[in-house]
TrEMBL record:
Keywords for the protein's UniProt record, in alphabetical order: DNA-binding
Matching Gene3D superfamilies: 1.10.1660.10
UniProt-recorded name of the protein: MerR family transcriptional regulator
Family annotation (InterPro entries): DNA-bd_dom_put_sf, MerR-type_HTH_dom, MerR_fam
Length: 252
Protein backbone atom coordinates (compact mmCIF):
# COMPACT_ATOMS: atom_id res chain seq x y z
CA UNK A 1 0.00 0.00 0.00
CA UNK A 2 1.40 3.39 -1.06
CA UNK A 3 0.74 5.75 1.85
CA UNK A 4 1.15 9.51 1.88
CA UNK A 5 4.37 9.17 3.86
CA UNK A 6 5.89 6.67 1.43
CA UNK A 7 4.80 8.79 -1.56
CA UNK A 8 6.42 11.83 0.01
CA UNK A 9 9.66 9.90 0.54
CA UNK A 10 9.73 8.61 -3.04
CA UNK A 11 9.29 12.03 -4.64
CA UNK A 12 11.22 14.06 -2.08
CA UNK A 13 8.49 16.29 -0.68
CA UNK A 14 6.66 16.44 2.64
CA UNK A 15 3.25 14.98 3.48
CA UNK A 16 2.19 18.53 4.29
CA UNK A 17 3.05 19.62 0.74
CA UNK A 18 1.00 16.75 -0.67
CA UNK A 19 -1.99 17.79 1.42
CA UNK A 20 -1.58 21.35 0.14
CA UNK A 21 -1.57 20.08 -3.45
CA UNK A 22 -4.78 18.21 -2.71
CA UNK A 23 -6.33 21.42 -1.31
CA UNK A 24 -5.25 23.41 -4.37
CA UNK A 25 -6.65 20.80 -6.73
CA UNK A 26 -3.25 20.00 -8.23
CA UNK A 27 -3.20 16.39 -7.09
CA UNK A 28 -6.48 14.44 -7.03
CA UNK A 29 -7.59 12.98 -3.74
CA UNK A 30 -6.90 9.22 -3.80
CA UNK A 31 -9.12 6.40 -2.67
CA UNK A 32 -9.15 5.75 1.07
CA UNK A 33 -9.12 2.54 3.04
CA UNK A 34 -11.88 1.58 5.41
CA UNK A 35 -9.76 3.10 8.15
CA UNK A 36 -9.59 6.42 6.29
CA UNK A 37 -5.99 6.19 5.06
CA UNK A 38 -5.17 7.53 1.60
CA UNK A 39 -3.94 4.93 -0.85
CA UNK A 40 -1.89 6.29 -3.76
CA UNK A 41 -1.06 4.82 -7.17
CA UNK A 42 1.75 4.96 -9.70
CA UNK A 43 -0.09 7.81 -11.46
CA UNK A 44 0.06 9.83 -8.26
CA UNK A 45 3.83 9.35 -8.20
CA UNK A 46 4.05 10.65 -11.78
CA UNK A 47 1.73 13.60 -11.15
CA UNK A 48 3.49 14.55 -7.93
CA UNK A 49 6.88 14.41 -9.62
CA UNK A 50 5.60 16.77 -12.33
CA UNK A 51 4.36 19.16 -9.66
CA UNK A 52 7.72 18.99 -7.90
CA UNK A 53 9.67 19.69 -11.09
CA UNK A 54 7.54 22.74 -11.81
CA UNK A 55 7.60 24.15 -8.28
CA UNK A 56 11.33 23.50 -7.89
CA UNK A 57 11.85 25.51 -11.08
CA UNK A 58 10.02 28.44 -9.53
CA UNK A 59 6.67 28.09 -11.24
CA UNK A 60 3.99 29.58 -8.94
CA UNK A 61 1.38 27.13 -7.70
CA UNK A 62 -1.28 29.19 -9.46
CA UNK A 63 0.35 28.28 -12.80
CA UNK A 64 1.19 24.65 -12.04
CA UNK A 65 -2.29 23.27 -12.81
CA UNK A 66 -2.22 24.68 -16.36
CA UNK A 67 1.21 23.22 -17.08
CA UNK A 68 0.87 19.72 -15.66
CA UNK A 69 -0.45 18.30 -18.91
CA UNK A 70 0.45 21.15 -21.29
CA UNK A 71 2.29 20.76 -24.58
CA UNK A 72 5.99 21.50 -24.78
CA UNK A 73 5.25 24.74 -26.63
CA UNK A 74 2.85 25.88 -23.90
CA UNK A 75 5.37 24.97 -21.21
CA UNK A 76 8.09 26.91 -23.03
CA UNK A 77 5.86 29.98 -23.29
CA UNK A 78 4.91 29.78 -19.64
CA UNK A 79 8.53 29.31 -18.61
CA UNK A 80 9.45 32.44 -20.57
CA UNK A 81 6.81 34.40 -18.65
CA UNK A 82 8.00 33.02 -15.32
CA UNK A 83 11.60 33.81 -16.25
CA UNK A 84 10.68 37.41 -17.11
CA UNK A 85 8.91 37.74 -13.78
CA UNK A 86 11.94 36.34 -11.97
CA UNK A 87 14.20 38.83 -13.73
CA UNK A 88 11.99 41.66 -12.52
CA UNK A 89 12.04 40.28 -8.99
CA UNK A 90 15.82 39.90 -9.09
CA UNK A 91 16.15 43.51 -10.23
CA UNK A 92 13.87 44.58 -7.36
CA UNK A 93 15.96 42.58 -4.90
CA UNK A 94 19.14 44.20 -6.18
CA UNK A 95 17.60 47.62 -5.70
CA UNK A 96 16.56 46.57 -2.20
CA UNK A 97 20.11 45.43 -1.44
CA UNK A 98 21.43 48.75 -2.68
CA UNK A 99 18.96 50.62 -0.48
CA UNK A 100 19.95 48.49 2.52
CA UNK A 101 23.62 49.21 1.88
CA UNK A 102 22.83 52.93 1.82
CA UNK A 103 21.11 52.66 5.19
CA UNK A 104 24.34 51.35 6.68
CA UNK A 105 26.33 54.37 5.52
CA UNK A 106 26.50 57.97 6.70
CA UNK A 107 23.12 59.71 6.75
CA UNK A 108 20.65 57.19 5.32
CA UNK A 109 17.63 59.50 5.44
CA UNK A 110 19.23 62.38 3.52
CA UNK A 111 20.14 62.98 -0.12
CA UNK A 112 23.89 62.60 -0.69
CA UNK A 113 24.38 66.35 -1.17
CA UNK A 114 22.75 67.16 2.18
CA UNK A 115 24.74 64.40 3.88
CA UNK A 116 27.91 66.06 2.57
CA UNK A 117 26.78 69.38 4.06
CA UNK A 118 26.27 67.66 7.41
CA UNK A 119 29.75 66.22 7.26
CA UNK A 120 31.06 69.75 6.75
CA UNK A 121 29.05 71.09 9.69
CA UNK A 122 30.38 68.31 11.90
CA UNK A 123 33.91 69.17 10.78
CA UNK A 124 33.61 72.81 11.94
CA UNK A 125 32.38 71.74 15.38
CA UNK A 126 28.58 71.78 15.22
CA UNK A 127 27.13 69.63 18.01
CA UNK A 128 25.49 66.30 17.33
CA UNK A 129 22.24 67.54 18.88
CA UNK A 130 22.03 70.39 16.38
CA UNK A 131 23.05 68.12 13.53
CA UNK A 132 20.22 65.78 14.46
CA UNK A 133 17.72 68.63 14.42
CA UNK A 134 19.13 69.93 11.12
CA UNK A 135 18.96 66.44 9.65
CA UNK A 136 15.28 66.14 10.49
CA UNK A 137 14.66 69.61 9.08
CA UNK A 138 16.20 68.54 5.79
CA UNK A 139 14.08 65.38 5.74
CA UNK A 140 11.02 67.61 6.16
CA UNK A 141 12.19 69.94 3.39
CA UNK A 142 12.93 67.02 1.10
CA UNK A 143 9.34 65.78 1.51
CA UNK A 144 7.53 69.13 1.40
CA UNK A 145 9.74 71.06 -1.04
CA UNK A 146 11.56 68.48 -3.21
CA UNK A 147 11.95 70.98 -6.03
CA UNK A 148 13.63 73.52 -3.74
CA UNK A 149 16.11 71.28 -1.92
CA UNK A 150 18.99 72.10 -4.28
CA UNK A 151 18.27 75.83 -4.05
CA UNK A 152 18.15 75.84 -0.26
CA UNK A 153 21.21 73.63 -0.07
CA UNK A 154 23.16 75.95 -2.37
CA UNK A 155 22.21 78.91 -0.19
CA UNK A 156 23.30 77.09 2.97
CA UNK A 157 26.64 76.05 1.48
CA UNK A 158 27.32 79.59 0.26
CA UNK A 159 26.52 81.09 3.67
CA UNK A 160 28.81 78.65 5.44
CA UNK A 161 31.70 79.98 3.38
CA UNK A 162 31.27 83.30 5.21
CA UNK A 163 33.35 83.35 8.44
CA UNK A 164 30.83 85.58 10.21
CA UNK A 165 27.94 83.25 9.39
CA UNK A 166 29.94 80.24 10.57
CA UNK A 167 30.72 82.02 13.83
CA UNK A 168 27.05 82.91 14.33
CA UNK A 169 26.03 79.34 13.52
CA UNK A 170 28.37 77.94 16.16
CA UNK A 171 27.30 80.55 18.71
CA UNK A 172 23.65 79.67 18.13
CA UNK A 173 24.50 76.01 18.51
CA UNK A 174 26.24 76.77 21.80
CA UNK A 175 23.25 78.81 23.00
CA UNK A 176 20.92 75.80 22.87
CA UNK A 177 21.06 75.19 26.62
CA UNK A 178 21.26 78.79 27.80
CA UNK A 179 18.57 80.49 29.83
CA UNK A 180 16.12 82.46 27.64
CA UNK A 181 17.08 85.71 29.39
CA UNK A 182 20.83 85.20 28.93
CA UNK A 183 22.24 88.61 27.88
CA UNK A 184 24.51 86.96 25.32
CA UNK A 185 21.45 86.20 23.19
CA UNK A 186 20.98 89.91 22.53
CA UNK A 187 24.48 90.15 21.12
CA UNK A 188 23.94 87.14 18.87
CA UNK A 189 20.62 88.56 17.64
CA UNK A 190 22.20 91.93 16.83
CA UNK A 191 25.14 90.34 15.06
CA UNK A 192 22.77 88.10 13.12
CA UNK A 193 20.68 91.02 11.89
CA UNK A 194 23.80 93.02 11.07
CA UNK A 195 24.94 90.12 8.91
CA UNK A 196 21.51 89.63 7.32
CA UNK A 197 21.15 93.21 6.10
CA UNK A 198 24.47 93.00 4.27
CA UNK A 199 23.39 89.98 2.26
CA UNK A 200 21.57 89.76 -1.05
CA UNK A 201 17.92 88.99 -0.24
CA UNK A 202 17.29 85.28 -0.77
CA UNK A 203 15.21 84.05 -3.68
CA UNK A 204 11.96 83.25 -1.91
CA UNK A 205 9.91 82.20 -4.92
CA UNK A 206 7.99 79.06 -4.05
CA UNK A 207 8.85 79.09 -0.35
CA UNK A 208 5.45 80.14 0.92
CA UNK A 209 3.14 79.03 -1.89
CA UNK A 210 1.97 76.28 0.46
CA UNK A 211 1.24 77.96 3.82
CA UNK A 212 0.90 74.65 5.65
CA UNK A 213 4.23 73.33 4.39
CA UNK A 214 5.96 76.64 5.11
CA UNK A 215 4.60 76.67 8.65
CA UNK A 216 5.73 73.09 9.23
CA UNK A 217 9.27 73.85 8.11
CA UNK A 218 9.72 77.16 9.87
CA UNK A 219 8.25 76.08 13.20
CA UNK A 220 9.55 72.51 13.39
CA UNK A 221 10.94 71.91 16.88
CA UNK A 222 10.89 75.63 17.57
CA UNK A 223 10.13 74.79 21.20
CA UNK A 224 13.06 72.45 21.87
CA UNK A 225 15.17 75.26 23.31
CA UNK A 226 13.74 78.25 25.21
CA UNK A 227 16.97 80.10 24.45
CA UNK A 228 16.64 79.48 20.73
CA UNK A 229 13.01 80.55 20.84
CA UNK A 230 13.98 83.78 22.57
CA UNK A 231 16.84 84.30 20.12
CA UNK A 232 14.61 83.83 17.07
CA UNK A 233 11.96 86.15 18.49
CA UNK A 234 14.49 88.88 19.23
CA UNK A 235 16.18 88.43 15.85
CA UNK A 236 12.85 88.89 14.08
CA UNK A 237 12.13 92.04 16.10
CA UNK A 238 15.50 93.58 15.26
CA UNK A 239 15.21 92.53 11.62
CA UNK A 240 11.86 94.28 11.29
CA UNK A 241 13.31 97.39 12.92
CA UNK A 242 16.10 97.27 10.33
CA UNK A 243 13.58 96.95 7.50
CA UNK A 244 14.39 93.32 6.74
CA UNK A 245 11.35 91.22 5.81
CA UNK A 246 11.81 87.48 6.18
CA UNK A 247 10.45 85.07 3.56
CA UNK A 248 6.77 84.30 4.04
CA UNK A 249 6.03 87.36 6.19
CA UNK A 250 4.88 89.66 3.42
CA UNK A 251 1.28 90.64 2.60
CA UNK A 252 -1.19 87.77 2.22
Amino acid sequence: MLTIGRLADYVGVTPRAIRLYHQRGLLPEPERTASGYRVYTAQDVIDLQRIKVLTDAGVPLARVRDLLHASQADVAAAVAEVDADLRRRIADLRRTRGALATLAQGEPFLPASVAALHAGLRAIGVSEATLLRERDNWVLIHVLYPELVDQWLGTQVAMLEDPEFRDLYLLTDEAFGWEPDDPRLEEIARRTVAWMVTQTPPDTEGWDTDPVAYQLVTTYRSDVSPAWDALMTRTRELALEAGYVEPGSGPG
